[in-house]
Amino acid sequence: MRKSLRNLVCQVVAHSFILTGVVRYATRKALNSKCILSLYFHKPSKAEFEWCIQWLKKNGFRFISLDDVERVKNGEIPFPKGSVLLTVDDGWRSNVPNVVEVAIRHEVPVTIFVSTSPVEEGAYWWSYVHQAKQKGLIPYTKYELKKMPEQTRVGILQEIKKKVNPGRDAMTVDEVKTISAYPYITIGAHTHTHPILINCNQKQIYEELKISRQKLESWIGKEVDYFAYPNGDYSTREAQILKNLKYRLAFSSDPKYLTPESLRNSFTLPRFGFLEGASTAENICRMIGIWQPLMMKLSRFPYLKPKKNNKEIIQESMPKGGPSPA
Ligand SMILES: [Zn+2]
């Protein structure tokens, strides 16, 4: 489906969730239950990121840092009902004006998980792939490369790099260093070359996790203890290696709330994804945590008819003890 058509269809669906009170119910539930809205972005526009902060503030949410989340997990501070954690993956250059400057102006904490090789070299591997594909130099898409064994992917990328020049779309080392010193900004790791970790062997995973952390720590002069899995892909093996390397928390892209229960697993913390370019209605549903769970449920049924009603589905994905459905 073309992107514009996809966005239009999803906008209509999202509006139906808003008009039927599903969003209002989920918002009230999120504000009054023991759950944190854990969100991730990639490269939002300034307008998108600012709108997101304003919408969450207007609806009564308050923003907490990743350090706060760890203190909640360790029982050092009470569980903060009605709170939001903002994270951003990759370290895109546009994050500096569009995320960092906006976060500082609104006094909102943000954690940015940075891949170090693109920072050193200029671009992410899928930018090389996209350009090579556009020029007809390769038959593969980035989705196909994501499924290949790591050694195969690396070999293909080395060949592509000789043929294209995608320029720079990642932050520079100086930019990472500069923003790390700002209030409200935390830097986390996101591997060195942004491989799909489940396609790597054990040695490759250790190297990716060690190199990226060493580089980030040498650039910013601070310890780096938090991590986000590239593409959200992980298994118990990756979680165990992070634990062995004494990382403290790691985020997936499993679309669930951060609850006392999900906080028990330090290396599989969930997040809801904000979709850049989608409608505001869809992103309201995404931020409030109903979009992905509802879509997953709906996709299992012929004619998109769920057996359970939407409020029951939201109820299942939240901790017990919240208010009754309105
Ligand atoms: Zn990433």
Q: What do these coordinates show?
A:
The protein has 15 helices and 8 strands. The C terminus is likely disordered. By secondary structure, it is of the alpha/beta class. It has one domain: Glycoside hydrolase/deacetylase (TIM Barrel), CATH 3.20.20.370. Strands 1, 2, 3, 4, 5 and 8 form a 6-stranded parallel sheet that branches. Strands 6-7 form a two-stranded parallel sheet. The longest helix is centred in the middle third of the chain and has 19 residues. The chain starts with a helix and ends in a 9-residue tail after the last helix. Bound molecules: zinc ion. Zinc ion binds next to strand 3.
> What string, H for helix and E for strand, traces the elements in order?
HHEHEHEHEHHHHHEHEHEEHHH
CATH topology: TIM Barrel
Task: Examine the secondary-structure arrangement and name the CATH architecture.
Answer: Alpha-Beta Barrel
Mean pLDDT: 90
User: Helix content range of the residues, please?
Assistant: 40-55%
Q: How many runs of DSSP E, i.e. beta strands?
A: 8
Computed CA radius of gyration, to the nearest angstrom: 20 Å
